[in-house]
Amino acid sequence: MRKTIVATVNNTSGVMNRITGLFARRNFNIESITVGMTENPRVSRMTFVMNVDDQRGLDQVIKQLNKQVDVLKVRDLTDEAIVARELALIKVLSPPQQRGELTDLIQPFRASIIDVSRESITIQVTGDNDKVEALIDLVKPYGIKELARTGITAFKRDTKKGVIDSPKYSVIN
Amino acid sequence: MNTKVKEENGRELKVENQQMSGSSMLIQALAREKVDVIFGYPGGAILPTYDEIYRTGIRHILARHEQGAIHAAEGYARVSGKPGVCVVTSGPGATNVITGIADAMIDSLPLVVITGQVATSVIGTDAFQEADIIGVTMPITKHNFQVRNVNDLPNIIKESFHIATSGRPGPVLIDLPKDVSIAIGEFNYDEPLDLPGYQPTKIPNRLQIRKLAEAVAKAKKPVILTGAGILHAGGSEEVLEFAENQQIPVASTLLGLGAFPGDHEQFLGMGGMHGTYSANMALHEADLLINIGARFDDRLTGRLDAFAPYATIAHIDIDPAEIGKNVETHIPIVGDAKEAMRMLNEEAKTNCECGDWKETIKEWKAEYPLWYTEDDELLKPQRLIEMIYEETNGDAIITTDVGQHQMWSAQFYKFPKPNQWVTSGGLGTMGFGFPSAIGAQFAEPDKTVVAVVGDAGFQMTAQELSILQELNLPVKIIIVNNASLGMVRQWQQLFYEERYSNSLFPIQPDFVKLADAYNVKGWKIEDPAEMQDILKEALAYDGPVLLDCRVHKVENVYPMIAPGKGHHEMEGIKP
Ligand SMILES: Cc1ncc(C[n+]2csc(CCOP(=O)(O)OP(=O)(O)O)c2C)c(N)n1
């Protein structure tokens, strides 16, 4: 099961260490972790995407996180209405004659080209996991030289199910 | 505003809002936390604190190795219920207490460990005696702090004591850089605690308690499993009331011994790898298992998929992460064991009808008690423990090391009361037994404290004989001497076709002479006929003693559930 978990934590040195150490020790399988400050500078927000086998495994993750003195709150957002975004930088091989084609290809993703060299371009894309995956798949045949992804950061929506999320890949990206 | 309050002994107890050094704050704060003894060892980075110890006269016990100090702090905590305090220097001093910290973590003992650290300006430069003790102890402490600013120190100490002793207890480490301990700041110990991420649940949910009460009313084969959580919560009386009202049999974990009276007719003994037949069979056949404050450790459960296969599992634990960790739980109850049992006693009105079950259990107990073959020539280690039980009227505090003697102590000393039993359960730390007895003696100066140790484990921390010598501390050391790493030898015999790799001691030190070197009275006993008289004399002796008891060398601990087996697959039960 792929799960998205969000934790608010005290913004103290070593808190990241505590949490990654805990994951490593308990053998929890993490796909990505993002961390950054919140509106309150004393509090940071961490978003984990992880693979867990079953509900019991997930419960253990959440309980172990909650046990940390520096962890304020943990939520499993997997089945909630959320806004979830990540950013990816993709360096793709692109001889000058293919540039136009690539630009057209990425346009519906609202992706942008942020760097150009003689044989490659670097594309920046923001979106949820599916969107980023879809773009990566599309450009793969051209040859990906380098790929960097930030991992998901997520929010619970105030309104129920996303009005703004559809139509896919257009308005807010 | 300066407020000063004098304690009876004249020591200034409360010095508020006053400018002072970090080390001075530390000692003031320890007094505010009513710490009456510190176990430790000095060194460079912690010297400012030792200077304060010298000046204030706060009681400090100098161990001869930091491991001795921390195990003493653990023994003190286990028996007194108060946090054990240990102070050591940076680098090697700090790394020498790691075993004890890990031990306290896994056995939930409240400790506050203060380590010196190099000055903040050189942290991270591999300075002399620098070790990243925060990084090292992160996974083996309940929490740890590095003090970067002297003004944070009072709060950090206050939070440390709170975290160590509340919820599920555990060790907290404070890393104190030398410059911070010298720096001057304001001492204010009356700030309220601000720990929004730490709010342990003490009071359980009454609806869950009702669910358990209903399950009790319906059960035909209920069993209670008592764990150390009851001891931490001080809930023995409530458990006894419940068990007696409902007439439910009680099995215990290793660490839970004493939570329910060991001489009670409903008591089945310890369950698990070297548990009794009746405890293990009751756990196996039960239709309702009520776990009170135990963590379903693998030494207790045996093979998990064969554990309590017919039972509804109820689990009372103050640590929510323990519930469902190893065993799927049907009735989870998060909260303090005493509170939970008090509420359960209110809710459980109908008595369970389990007459047949009681009969079955009575038969198991009668048919398959703990047993050993007696011998006139050789001292049997089991008999030795029985004698200790008889000669101390079951009233002593028993500490043990790890190995066969530990299991025999758990089996044959029938702890009637809580907090008489000090042993390293989760980590299985050799070298724990003797120094923890020292700490236990400080917690209970007027009680008989017996350290039952193996000949090997004793040699891991024997240097603490110095403390006995120095303070004439009347700890009774009983070496169950089988001239081997007994438990290792047993496993090699059973599972490695008697290839005794590095487990036999053809040559041993003269333990009596060793005791003599520290001015501790020693006896060597080879003839079983002498044992009882010498034991009497040793226990009556006013001062420290050491008994080197030469026991049958190849005795094994039975019964036994081999690794990977279930409770119904015990070996070595009484024929
Ligand atoms: C620090 C440490 N090292 C190794 C072990 C593994 N171990 C468990 S029991 C044991 C033998 C202990 O021998 P002894 O102290 O003589 O006690 P006995 O089993 O003979 O009663 C050993 C080596 C351990 N538990 N702790």
TrEMBL record, chain A:
Question: Where in the numbering of this chain does the ACT domain appear?
Answer: 4-79
Metabolic or biological pathway, per its Swiss-Prot or TrEMBL entry: Amino-acid biosynthesis; L-valine biosynthesis; L-valine from pyruvate: step 1/4; Amino-acid biosynthesis; L-isoleucine biosynthesis; L-isoleucine from 2-oxobutanoate: step 1/4
Identify a single GO molecular function assigned to this protein: acetolactate synthase activity
One of its GO biological process terms is:
L-valine biosynthetic process
The EC number(s) attached to this protein equal 2.2.1.6
Q: Name one GO cellular component term.
A: cytosol
Record keywords: Amino-acid biosynthesis, Branched-chain amino acid biosynthesis, Transferase
Show the catalytic activity.
Answer: 2 pyruvate + H(+) = (2S)-2-acetolactate + CO2
UniProt keyword annotation of Transcription present: no
Q: What class of enzyme is it?
A: transferase
- Output the InterPro entries linked to this UniProt entry: Acetalactate_synth_ssu, Acetolactate_synth/TF_NikR_C, Acetolactate_synth_ssu_C, ACT-like_dom_sf, ACT_dom, AHAS_ACT, AHAS_small-like_ACT
Q: Does the keyword Disulfide bond apply?
A: no
Against CDD domains, the record matches this protein to: ACT_AHAS (cd04878)
- Subunit-level organization: Dimer of large and small chains.
Family assignment from sequence similarity: Belongs to the acetolactate synthase small subunit family.
Stated role: Catalyzes the conversion of 2 pyruvate molecules into acetolactate in the first common step of the biosynthetic pathway of the branched-amino acids such as leucine, isoleucine, and valine.
What PANTHER family does the entry give? Answer: ACETOLACTATE SYNTHASE SMALL SUBUNIT (PTHR30239), ACETOLACTATE SYNTHASE SMALL SUBUNIT 1, CHLOROPLASTIC (PTHR30239:SF0)
- Its name, as the record gives it, is Acetolactate synthase small subunit
Automatic annotation (TrEMBL), chain B:
Classification via InterPro entries:
Acetolactate_synth_lsu, AHAS_TPP, DHS-like_NAD/FAD-binding_dom, THDP-binding, Thiamin_PyroP_enz_cen_dom, Thiamin_PyroP_enz_TPP-bd_dom, TPP-bd_CS, TPP_enz
Report the co-factor binding details. Answer: Binds 1 Mg(2+) ion per subunit. Binds 1 thiamine pyrophosphate per subunit.
Q: In which pathway does it act?
A: Amino-acid biosynthesis; L-valine biosynthesis; L-valine from pyruvate: step 1/4; Amino-acid biosynthesis; L-isoleucine biosynthesis; L-isoleucine from 2-oxobutanoate: step 1/4
Which residue numbers delimit the Thiamine pyrophosphate enzyme central domain?
209-344
Q: Can you say what this protein is called?
A: Acetolactate synthase
Gene source species: Sinobaca qinghaiensis
Provide the organism lineage as a comma list.
Answer: Bacteria, Bacillati, Bacillota, Bacilli, Bacillales
What superkingdom does the record give? Bacteria
Q: What is its EC number?
A: 2.2.1.6
Kindly give the SUPFAM superfamilies that the UniProt entry links to this protein: DHS-like NAD/FAD-binding domain, Thiamin diphosphate-binding fold (THDP-binding)
